[in-house]
Amino acid sequence: MELYYSFSTIIVIATLFAFINKLFLKLPSTIGIMVIAMIVSITLVFFVNPISGEPLNDLARLFQSFDFTDILMKGMLSFLLFAGAIHINLNDLKEQKTPVVVFSTLSVIISAFTIGFALYYLLNIMLPMLDLHLEMPYIYCLLFGALISPTDPIAVLSILKEAKVSKSLETKVAGESLFNDGIAVVVFAVILNLAEGKNVDLSFTHISWLFIKEAIGGLLVGLILGWIGSRMIKQAHDYKISVLITLSIVMGGSMISHLMHISGPLMMVAAGLIVGEVKRKRLENKVVDNNNLGTFWELIDEVMNAILFLFIGFELILIPHLERYWLIGCICIVVVLIARYISIKLPALIIPFKEKLTSGTIKILVWGGLRGGVSIALALSIPENPYKQVIIAATYFVVVFSIIIQGLTISKVTKKIAI
Question: Do 104 and 180 touch, CB atoms closer than 8 A?
């Protein structure tokens, strides 16, 4: 019952913040909710807490009672990815399949190692020369690179709804963010095990098998679930049953991914794409029930996003002495942006894409590569060690900059750059 009351409180707060944003800030809903949550957090930390710790302690206890990593990675992410994938046109995705595959695999690896090397050099060689000591072992610099490199599908899909970009560019960014989970999780898991001193088989065969099991396995099972679900939807001809079928795909699929140790997010993306294609074709044939199905998942998407961005905003009060990490946070923001540029530019130079990537397109892909809750969840999942708080704080700085600054300006950047 206590969990019910806690969750009810979260919904009420998210609703209130969404309403305030609609009336006054008029920002995109998710960003507005996060900004208000951050303002409240800062007020509690710097103004209310010195007088009376109770409001801060009560709010901190509420959010500490939730395991953000479990809630996002084992629950909300499946709903959000399915809701996002169901609205993507499969034909558009096929047109952009080469850049999507390259950016969601090769670019993630390039970015992770670029961030790792650059951060290690800056923190351990350059800053000590200026008598600034923020040293961090290379393995933890690389770990940060692995968790911050994948673009977050939740943040990207949410912001792209508000930004007016070309269809091909939107598909590239959205497709990359939906599919880069597989390689990112494998890279993060391997580096985390190395950081903890565990014996890890780094052979090409073993790493390839991990990727095949995690990513390819998740995609294949997702395609099967999507095909079965779409056949049932066609036979049912009923909106309510169609909703139940899709909910079963998401919730049942999450259990299957846990039992089979395969990528649940990729499973949901594959299933959502198949169901979405059936929905789109039936809409073309003026079947009304599938329009209602799309509306239902749009509502789920909005509610889940509101809760998620509220959590991100209030994570600020759970990071002790965040102000101490402003320098490393700013450094990481610059390093991540440069690494993002290299990870897009390098493949564009060596891989013959069907559609040549112009300098303008690359700049928008760099600026539109948002980070979000997934990176924070991965950072929070790191076991306790002397560098965990630094990594969490740096991740938070990058995510907040990404969502607020990049997210709010992507439309303006797009208009200024000729694609």
Answer: yes
For the stretch 144-169, pLDDT in tens is 999 999 998 877 877 776 666 778 88
**What is the distance between the alpha carbons of residues 81 and 87, in angstroms, rounded to a whole number?**
10
Cα 398–chain centre separation:
13
CA 79 to chain centre: 13
CA 100 to chain centre: 16
Question: What is the 3-state composition of the chain as percent helix, strand, coil, each rounded to the nearest 5?
Answer: 80, 0, 20
Q: Which of 329-333, 354-358, 415-419 has the lowest mean pLDDT?
A: 415-419
**Residue 164 burial by CB count (10 A; 0-12/13-18/19+): exposed, middle or buried?**
exposed
Taking the CB of residue 341, how many other CB atoms lie within 10 A of it? Answer: 18
Q: Which residue has the tokens 């710097």?
A: 46
SS3 label, residue 199 = coil
Handedness of CA 158, 34, 180, 329 (dihedral sign): positive
Q: Considering only CA atoms, which of 28, 46, 139, 56 is closest in space to residue 386?
A: 139
Instruction: Spell out the residues 6+ positions from residue 116 whose beta carbon is closer than 8 angstroms to its own.
Output: 138, 141, 142, 143, 144, 145, 146
Which residue has tokens 């989970």? 181
Is the separation of the CB atoms in 115 and 333 below 8 Å? no
Report the candidate in 304, 325, 349, 272 with the shortest Cα–Cα distance to residue 14.
Answer: 304
CB of 304 within 8 A of CB of 257? no
pLDDT digits (tens, 9 = 90+) for 230-289: 999 989 888 899 999 999 999 999 999 999 989 999 999 999 999 999 878 776 666 655
pLDDT value at residue 51: 45
- For residue 205, the 8-state DSSP code is H
Confidence of residue 182 (pLDDT cuts 50, 70, 90): confident
How many angstroms separate the CA atoms of 172 and 177, rounded? Answer: 9
Would you tell me how many other CB atoms lie within 10 Å of the CB of residue 176?
A: 27
Spacing of C-alpha 106 from chain mean position: 18
User: What does the angle CA 176 – CA 182 – CA 188 come to, to the nearest 5 degrees?
Assistant: 110
